[in-house]
Amino acid sequence: MTVFEPLERVGHSPLVRITTPVPQPHPGYFAKIEALGIGGLKARSAQSMLAGARRRGELRDGARIVESTSGTLGVGLAYVAQALGHPITLVVDSELEPAMRNLLRALGATLVIVDEPHPEGGWQQARLDALHHILAGDDAYWPNQYDNPDNAAGYHALADEIVSGLTAAGIERAEVLVCSVGTGGHSSGVGHRLRQLWPDLRIIGVDALGSRIFGQPATPRVMRGLGSSMHPGNVRYDMFDEVHWVGPNEAVHACRGLARGGFHTGGWSTGATATVAGWAAARWPGSVITIFPDGPDRYLRTIFDDDWCRRRDLLEPPHTQPHEIDDCEDPTWCWTRCESVRSPIGSVSARTEATAR
Predict the structure, then answer these.
(1) Within the chain, what is the greatest distance between any pair of CA atoms?
(2) How far does Cα 28 stand from its chain's mean position?
(3) Which domains, and CATH codes, for the chain?
(4) Cα 344 from chain centre
(5) 3-state helix/strand/coil string of 98-166
(6) CA distance 198 to 181
(7) For 295, which of 35, 212, 278, 345 could close a Cys bridge (C-beta 3.0–4.6 Å)?
(8) pLDDT tens across the length of the chain (357 residues)
(9) Which string of DSSP letters, residue by residue, matches 274-302?
(10) What is residue 15's DSSP assignment?
(11) Which H/E stretch holds residue 203?
């Protein structure tokens, strides 16, 4: 029997062919099921960020790690920090599911829970404000998942696993990559690596309605785990051929459809990427690949709870095609697609200056 050290087994999730007809019938696509990898998707970036910090002398032996999380990164950081002998404090918010809070505590994390969203930056900014307050009085290390290049670098191995999996299936290359976008870590890391191999690979970003990443105004979001109320430095805007903003109705429908028709399902990020991957597989010939970032366990009282969904009108029939817009700053109110992706940071600054004048 072969015995592995904990950090040697990070990643290595299965690549599975998905044929469930969500959001419409399609010939199938390939998905990396990250919930079945040791430590989950974010253990890849956690290992890369902490190893990089230790190598540069930024993270001392036994030093405390502090980070903001909506859940998934917290699991990955707790797994890696435990293996490396670091205590960890995670700043979360009151909307984090009780089951996830219990899991993080069970993994040894200390939780700081934020009770009120920031009036403009929402829960994300409120968590970051609390994090900076902790750092001001503690000699701790903050990985800064949003701007840390080691975050993206941690996903190069995921891209290599995709290539190996396709090769084992007798497939020479993929035509389309569909990636959810939050911090920009796994989309940038996987996309950059695969573009080196396949320069004409089409890369589709999947964002959430109400997210600010690609130029929309930040509004309260039901969906957690993708999207952002800020512009993370790891997002490589020039890499994307198009972006889709997916709504919670589509994500709920996809997650439930995947569970009934293909077993492999998950939460908001998985539902959103499955929606766009199924659409892309029906639209383009050749292999479409995507990444299912999480599993269903933490969503049993939300996405998979009829009463919870009914109270939010999330059981209404979803859209099966995206609405099309010409510019990423045009209004979105449902699942929407835009093929003119650019960094919104300059235009946001210009609007702010114009308002000030």
Answers:
(1) 70
(2) 22
(3) 6-38+151-347 (3.40.50.1100), 41-148 (3.40.50.1100)
(4) 20
(5) HHHHHHHHHCCCEEEEECCCECCCHHHHHHHHHHHHHHHCCCCECCCCCCCHHHHHCCHHHHHHHHHHH
(6) 21
(7) 35
(8) 544 566 778 889 999 999 999 999 999 999 999 999 988 999 999 999 999 999 999 999 999 999 999 888 999 999 999 999 999 999 999 989 898 999 999 999 999 999 998 888 888 899 999 999 999 877 899 999 999 999 999 999 999 999 999 999 999 999 999 999 999 999 999 999 999 999 999 999 999 999 999 999 988 889 988 999 889 999 999 999 999 999 999 999 999 999 999 899 999 999 999 999 999 999 999 999 999 999 999 999 999 999 999 999 999 999 999 999 999 999 999 999 999 999 998 654 333 333 333
(9) HHHHHHHHHHSSS-EEEEE---SGGGTTT
(10) E
(11) strand 202-208
Closest CA to 188 of 156, 164, 221: 156
Task: Tell me the pairing of strands 15-18 and 29-33.
Answer: antiparallel
**The tokens of 179 are what?**
């990636």
pTM for this model (two decimals): 0.93
Residue 71 corresponds to which tokens in the numbers above? 């859940």
